[in-house]
Amino acid sequence: MAAMINVALPKGRLGEKVYKMFEEAGYGCPDIFVGRKLVFENRDAGVRYFWVKPSDVPIYVERGAADIGVAGKDILLESAPNVYELADLGIGKCRMVVAAPRGFEDDSEYPLRVATKFVNIAQDYYASVGRDIDIIKLNGSIEIAPILGLSDVIVDLVETGTTLRENDLVIVEEIMDVSARLIANKSGYNFKSREISELLSKIR
Amino acid sequence: MQYDQNVLTRTERRIFALRTLYSRAGYRSYRMRKFEDYDLYSRNKDFLLSDRVITFTDTNGRLKALKPDVTLSLVRNLKDRPDELQRLYYDENVYRVSERTNTFKEIMQMGLECIGAADNDAVAEVLDLAEKSLALVAEDQDYLLKVSDLDIMTLLIDDMTDSKDMKAELLKLAGEKNLHGIRDLCGRNDVPAEKCATLTALLGIYGAPEQTLPELEELCRGTVAEAESAEMISVMRELTDDSRRIVIDFSVTGDTSYYNGVAFAGYIEGIPEPVLVGGRYDMLMRRMKKRSRAIGFAVYLDSLGMLGRNAGDRAIDEFFSNTVRDEGGED
After folding, report:
1. ipTM summary value
2. What predicted TM-score, i.e. pTM, was given to this entire model?
């Protein structure tokens, strides 16, 4: 009998898009959007889903509670889990950018004050361009930081740019493109490689 | 006096089983001192899983360290005899920072080393013992030994770029089986498409040696890695019988400034990380001014503590049978 694949899905809009993708590939699960349950299975399709907080997906997969999972590249770069990254699903596309108030000019005499949720990504980026920075770690409403003088710039994800425009911020640098990635546990992959490869070929 | 085996803990039983396996295969136990001069580790930080080491000043003023690793210490203290094969095994406690807790842990590690005239026969012997070690400690769980070759990987990557940073990035992506990342990186750096395709095809090879070795031979024919692939194939052909739980998988990587040639990692179903890691480390020997060649592996006995404890499929099955399926029935 084929083994069940345990899938960690990110709660929210991205997770719903990913689930649709899996459903179309034959891995549907009845009632997955009904009620507040967080775990669902379809034994006939050989799949179980867990809805988890998006930033927790890599932990579930790295620790083997889920065999595979879907996480944004931003989350993977930030948490650097020891997992396989098997596919770029091409959905949940957005950009990691540096944004600043309109007319901002960087004064290299002082460290640049950078507000962000993505501390590691921001540090790596500025290290790669040789710029000294002060990191201000925030957990939300990043756009407000330059307005209040808390920071000079922000490093954040942008999908349409509406939030930036409404807060009079402009993109000054693009760091990278971000999209949803399918990840797998490095041990679990070996014992369910046939099932995971089949799933991968069907969703592509 | 006879003793009752039941008084032994699971870990002690595993240690005795492995000691028996290694000593019957002609390996002798090697004991080392608890402390080493700190400079040994400070000069070889990249070789260690973590560069943080517990240090203290000895009564004579020398800076000492609690061993974070066995191989470095063993290589330094062992006499260099490149024309003979020294077969050794050890079980030692090491002290290093756990990636998970970010605090120092005492870790029980068992392993073996083949040092000196470590030719291809020695490689096959060590791979055989690695697989047998997994079989011994896996209890009733499935297990798998994944084998790769860093020489093949390094030669193909060196042929793609001169950039040190890009080589490191390609090796990292290879370890993640991140084929789309490799294609993207190659595309951005004008790497010829056929060289990129060879590397991604190498990483696509996955399976038992009898199925994958012909694939490897075909893929590497006419490439810079042809001779190295032939060498790997000749070693692996000795390990192709059906009963073996060995797969070829080039996503097993390592720091190429220390490791070269065959690299391997052992997994047990239900344990999310490798429980056995090993490979050839002639480069480390050169760095330590030794003429011997060497290959070895370590078994992480602390990881084996997760056997039967980790959530995995059994716990999830229990959850579904106790809750979700009951609810479904009531609906």
Report:
1. 0.88
2. 0.89
